[in-house]
Amino acid sequence: MILEDFLVKAEEGYYCRYGDFYIDALLPVACNLISHAHGDHATNGHQQMFATTATFAFMRNKFSKMVEEHMQHVAFNEPFKIGDVELMFIAAGHMLGSAQILMRYRDVRYLYTGDYKLQADPTCEPLECVQADVLITESTFANPSIQHPDYVSEILKLRDKPSNIMLGCYTLGKAQRLTALINEFLPEREVLVHHKMYPVHRLYDQLGPTRLKYSLYNRKAMKEGKPNKIYLVPPLTFNSYFKATNVLKAFASGWERLQRQNDIALYISDHVDWDDLLSFIADVKPSEVWTIHGDGRQLQAHFAGQLTVRDILKN
To answer: pTM higher than 0.90 for the full model?
Structure first.
């Protein structure tokens, strides 16, 4: 029997009372499972933390005072238990080390996706699909009007531009994926990375499946030689360069609002779009779908009378 309150949204994070643990807690708790290292999912200060080795490596890069004794490294597809709940981390394909969390309690399987994508990404583990009775899915782009274009066609928009390009993107995950795409499909372009991205690229080189080609940004490199540079910068830096000259501006994101006033629209997302979400639900074959991180109303309407779809309950 599905327990409607097996995982609920609490002030601290998503709470499982049956194992007395949290998932992706934003406030300090006694026991926290971390799906991936992005700041809206990964925080420090918990008494006990479970995550993949890559996730902990990225967190150490951000948090200087992490305590090793508080960290429990979890490998993909290796079962473990907290209380009476059986758990397993499954690759999510969102970024290096990102995990779905499969929970089994009284013979019912609950799958928390975290953030995930179906698109290929040479810099991280590909999404793995497992069947579950309850799918607890992010719904960032759960809207039929949102269809992510082919990422290869998008990155090729940067080809044959007679100028250097300033490319805005998130420091962790997206910047490394873009670097790999540029390396593969635009080998004539030289990648320069912002100083905040550089240590993350180095960690990807150490832990990831793909060796990236890039250099640390310096002004001289941008001004001299061929105009074949693509300079990757984080959002705040990108926004502060709104008067930049002699470069074309683009921002890699699935959000339309982030494409406005740029020279090149670049729709590359690390989340599932509507079609991918429907495809994933079909593969998981859940009896119920609980939505988090977004608006699940369109999904509820789509499956009305066919499948139970609702927002996760609040504590």
So the answer is: yes
